[in-house]
Amino acid sequence: MLPRDEARRLFEEMGQKFKVAIIDRLASDVSSVSVYRTGDFLDLCRGPHVPDSGALTTVKLLRVAGVYWRGDERNPSSAGLRHRLVQPADLAAYLDRLARPSGAITAAWGASSRCSLRRLGPACPTGCPTASSSSTS
After folding, report:
1. How far apart are CA 34 and CA 45, in angstroms?
2. 0.70 exceeded by the pTM?
């Protein structure tokens, strides 16, 4: 943890304008920020952390995509990485769970609960107390 002002100054000195912007957008009552350092690399991070990245044996890169700062195409872009760290013994089960269609999970939940599902839009199921309607469309 670093005091907010110290973290802002440090990232500003490093030329990390996006991290400075993140710090500037924090609520005014936030007095410190969580940072992570490994070697010369310093980043804003909520954790959890490992003492040394050499302890990591399995990293699964899920997606790589170009992303715009704050989701606005007029802003600069960078690479966005989605990854997970899992125990090697758990990797197969985790990947199997990811491969299942999300609709199957939703359908199973709807069938096993006393709720009906109605869709507000694509991929937006909402659960409702079961009444006379049992619409799933």
Report:
1. 6
2. no
